[in-house]
Amino acid sequence: MSECEALSITGIILAGGQSSRMGRDKALLPVPGEPALKFVTHLARLLAAHCQEVLLVSRDQAQAHDYLSYLPPSIRVITDLVPQVGPLMGLYSGLCAMHTSHALVTAVDMPFLQPALLNFLLSQAQPATITMPLVAGQEQVLLAIYPRSILPLIEQRLQEGRRDPRSLLQLARVQLLEEAQLRTVDPQLRSFININTPEEFSFYR
C-alpha cells in the first residue's frame, strides 16, 4: 500500500464497452481457472489492494446496476459523462470523478493482470506524465497510469471528435516502459492479455 499512498493513486476499471465481439458482457465472464469469480470482481479486488480508491466506469445506469452485486462495497461505480463515445470518454469520466493525482487504468477484459506488474507501474509513475507500457511495439493505452492533470488535453481531443486514448500520446508527456523492463516482473506478459471473443475466452479457460 505504501506505493499508492506516496503517489496518490486511484484504480480505474473501464467497463463501458459494448462487448459486441464477445456477444455478452465481458465484465461478468468467469475468470479462467476460477469459475466462481467474475472478471469485474477479480480486478476490483486486485486494484483495491494496491490503490487508495477504486472506480468502475460503466456505460449507463443499467449496466452499473448489473455490476453492483459483484463488487466490494468500497468500489465506486460511475457512468460515462456522455454515453456512446468510447474509451476516451470512459477515461475522462474516471479522471473527473477521482480524488487523487494519478489513476492506474485497466480495461475490464484483462483477467491475468499480475500484482507484480501493478507494483512496477506504480513505482515508475511521475508527476504530470502518462506512464505507459510498450508491448510488441504498441502502446498499452488501456493498462497505464494517467495523471489527472491531463484532463484539459482529453477535453481538447473529445472536442475534436476523437474517441481513442491513443490520441493523447501526441499531446501529453509520456514515459514508455520497454518490454524488457516489463518482463522482469511479468515474464510472459500475461497482464496484457485481453479477452475479446468467445474463441479467446475458450482458449484461456
**Mean residue pLDDT:** 93
Label the structural class: alpha/beta
**Annotation, overall tally of beta strands:** 10
Cα-atom Rg, whole angstroms?
Answer: 16 Å
Describe this entry's structure for a reader.
The protein is of the alpha/beta class and 205 residues long. The protein is 32% helix and 22% strand. The chain has 8 helices and 10 strands. A hairpin with a 2-residue loop joins strand 2 and strand 3. Helix 4 packs antiparallel against helix 6.
What distinguishing features does this structure have?
single chain; 205 residues; alpha/beta; five-stranded mixed β-sheet; 8 helices; 32% helix
Give a short overview.
This protein has about 200 residues and is α/β, with parallel strands linked by helices.
